[in-house]
Amino acid sequence: MSLAASACGSSSTNDSSSVKPTTVSDADLQAALDTGGSITVWAWEPTLKQVVSDFQAKYPKVKVNLVNAGTTNDQYTALQNAVKAGSGIPDVAMMEYSALPQFTLANSIADLSTLGADKLEGTFTPGPWDAVHAGTSGIYGLPMDSGPMALFYNKEVFDKHKIAVPATWEEYIAAAKKLHAADPKTYLTADTGDAGFTTSMIWQAGGRPYTVDGTTVSVNFTDPGTQKFTSAWQQMVSGKLVAPIAAWSDSWYKGLGDGTIASLVTGAWMPAPFAAGVKASKGKWRVAPMPQWQAGGKVTAENGGSSLAVMEASPNKKLAYAFLKYVSVDEGAQTRIDQGAFPSTTKHMNSPDFLNKEDPYFGGQQINQILAQSATQVAPGWSYLPFQVYANSIFNDTVGKAYVSGTTLQDGLKSWQDASIKYGQEQGFTVK
């Protein structure tokens, strides 16, 4: 069944007229924890391992089976296959904010309003809280973190080659040229084509390629913001100034560790993967504000950021939601922050302890001050498609060709646009 038809033909909680009030009390959640049981959680985020251990120690009658079913699209594909088969579905699934609309529209995840999430209004910062509403009046996840962007760079490499920390994208490209000329084995960054990075860069540049109004959407990658990004990043691709190494691969982690990949521009959640996956470079990396399209600008974008959702098929929703609260609001939130995760809660974001913390991985730098500032500078007005998971899954078949052939990024985005429009129409959307 098409996504749009599924949404329109169902009496699901996607319909604002069917939103239910809270039916589960805090006492009910505590009773579920005291009674115990088993839940399965699909997630790839490294700090959750400690959180699960702490949670089970506090609630010894609860067993949490933490499963890494793959990162981002790999997990989403596995999750969609499980939902389609009607078996093997976890109780809880980690989902990036860009993925929530697709699973919400397909009625695969539960509206947490009935479990008490409506009482958390004001607990989270506006961006993540808006994102878990997935464009509806329901609440379809609890934010784990957010992803305001910043520049992560290897200070040791920068100092060695006398590279100044770039404040603009023009300076960033110049730095890439200087570094690669000085050492052809070293690159300022790595990129083989990543949908999240590309859309975030377009977001910061002022592009708004997606508009969504119910089941009417538009996809347009010809706007000035998109072209601002493609004209700049094409220089990096055509000049072979980006390492041809896929993010999250073993080679990528190795490059970050040995200095052959000298920087990343990514979301504020990155310190945790650095600490867990690039241990040998402790003390070498630093954080700086995201480079700007205009000198003196103060505009950022989000990149990633994730929530935890309760699957509609879960037979143990109360226990699953109690776990979500522990991770996102209660003790688990602080545990994750202590390990480098970036908060989505206003309490933690504004805490002096958080803002003034000296991070030993980053040479004692108070990185949270830069990351929190970025969170206040995120450009408004961004939307994701209600079938963004699918769109992202075909990114490398379209835009990705620009990294391995004579296709330009702008032409690749046109192909991505055409393929996204075709898919949306096949799914029953009105697509412009």
Detailed description of the structure:
This protein has 2 domains: 3-146 and 305-350, Periplasmic binding protein-like II (D-Maltodextrin-Binding Protein, domain 2, 3-Layer(aba) Sandwich); 149-302 and 379-431, Periplasmic binding protein-like II (D-Maltodextrin-Binding Protein, domain 2), CATH 3.40.190.10. Helix 3 (48-58) links the parallel strand 1 and strand 2 (62-67). The chain has helices at 3-8, 26-35, 48-58, 73-85, 100-105, 126-132, 155-160, 169-182, 195-204, 224-238, 250-258, 271-277, 317-328, 331-338, 346-349, 352-355, 367-375, 388-393, 395-398, 409-426; strands spanning 37-42, 62-67, 92-96, 142-143, 149-154, 189-190, 210-213, 216-219, 242-243, 263-267, 285-289, 306-310, 430-431. The strands form 4 sheets. It has a 5-stranded mixed beta sheet, sandwiched between helices. A 3-stranded antiparallel beta sheet has the order 10-5-11. The chain is of the alpha/beta class and 432 residues long. Helices cover 41% and strands 12% of the residues. The protein is globular. Helix 2 crosses helix 13, helix 9 packs across helix 10 and helix 13 crosses helix 14 (331-338). It has 20 helices and 13 strands.
Annotation keywords:
432 residues, alpha/beta, D-Maltodextrin-Binding Protein, domain 2, 2 domains, 5-stranded mixed sheet, 3-stranded antiparallel sheet, 13 strands, 12% strand, globular
The CATH class of the largest domain is identified as Alpha Beta
Class per helix and strand makeup: alpha/beta
Outline the biggest β-sheet.
Answer: 5 strands, mixed
Radius of gyration: 21 Å
Number of strands: 13
CATH architecture of the largest domain: 3-Layer(aba) Sandwich
Average pLDDT: 92
CATH superfamily of the largest domain: Periplasmic binding protein-like II
The strands making up the biggest β-sheet line up spatially as: 2-1-3-12-4
Backbone shape: globular
Contiguous helical run count = 20
**Percent helix:** 40-55%
Task: Output the CATH topology of the largest domain.
Answer: D-Maltodextrin-Binding Protein, domain 2
As residue ranges, the low-confidence spans are 8-19
Report the span from N to C terminus.
21 Å
The count of domains is 2
Our estimate of the beta-strand percent is 5-15%
